[in-house]
Design goal:
283 residues, alpha/beta, two-stranded parallel sheet
């Protein structure tokens, strides 16, 4: 067989009907959708079936439904064999993780960030958007903070009202407001990645919608992240990446085990360094 020819076609601002006709006229055999049911999607084009085969890639963690695509790109952690029968699409199962991790911007800079001294107090952090915060994951973070009184929490929140609300929630959990700090959105990728050097541990937003790109950034830059996978595909991406980099113990089996493991990593600097070395070697 001749190798497939990949072609990028800019369809921004093009009506769905016109976009579908353009793809069909080009004789495209496979349409790869990277958005799914997310903002700015082009499912109207996908639904018009301009190509013989339609498949997903990365952008949407779950079934499209309605016969929109023929295949879902997945792995055996995000979709265990027992769960595959409930998915209407066929699966393209990758051998490691379906989550494509970007290469570090500069490996030398990444290595320097890993070697940099951590903050004198244990720093727990999340780069997740606010919409991924949920009482269930926030309660787990509070449990870790109570277990490790010296630890501080850092979240990515821009607006003042949300910051005030989160500090109130922390106080309601019996934790001093001063232990919560905030980052602002950083459009420069290198500057954003540099902030990882402050963290002792990245916090996942499972067992709801877990870390995806932020989990890959953490793995590539040797910042430990423990996760609590649940039933949904979107909650299992952190576990998938942990398995792919050879550290499957990053996935806990219960909320209690997760809190205990996170606390142990913060308490035992030797264990934390050992896990960091494993992540660094795998990256």
């Amino acid at each position: 067989l001749a190798p497939a020819r990949l072609e990028h076609v800019a369809l921004a601002g093009v009506a769905d009907d016109d976009a579908a006709r353009s793809l069909a006229a080009r004789g495209c055999a496979i349409l790869v959708d990277g958005s799914g049911h997310t903002a700015g999607h082009r499912l109207g084009v996908v639904a018009r079936r301009p190509c013989a085969v339609r498949t997903s890639a990365l952008g949407f963690a779950g079934s499209y439904g309605g016969g929109l695509v023929d295949y879902l790109t997945a792995d055996r952690t995000v979709v265990p064999p027992a769960a595959a029968a409930a998915i209407p699409e066929r699966l393209s199962v990758l051998p490691h993780s379906y989550q494509v991790a970007p290469l570090p911007l500069e490996r030398a800079a990444a290595a320097a960030a890993v070697a940099a001294e951590r903050h004198h107090r244990p720093q727990l952090g999340s780069f997740a958007r606010v919409l991924r915060l949920h009482p269930s994951n926030f309660a787990l973070w509070c449990a870790v903070l109570r277990r490790t009184p010296a630890a501080e929490l850092r979240l990515l929140v821009d607006d003042a009202p949300t910051r005030a609300r989160l500090r109130d929630e922390l106080a309601a959990a019996g934790i001093a407001r001063r232990r919560l700090h905030f980052w602002r959105y950083e459009p420069d990728k290198a500057a954003h990645i540099a902030r990882h050097r402050l963290l002792s541990l990245l916090l996942d937003t499972t067992p709801t919608f877990g870390a995806h790109t932020t989990a890959a950034d953490a793995a590539l830059h040797a910042v430990p992240m423990l996760t609590l996978p649940a039933d949904l595909w979107a909650s299992r991406v952190g576990a998938s990446l942990g398995a792919a980099v050879g550290v499957p113990q990053l996935a806990a089996h219960s909320a209690r085990a997760l809190v205990a493991a996170q606390g142990a990593l913060l308490d035992a600097r030797g264990s934390s360094r050992a896990l960091t070395r494993a992540l660094r070697a795998a990256a």
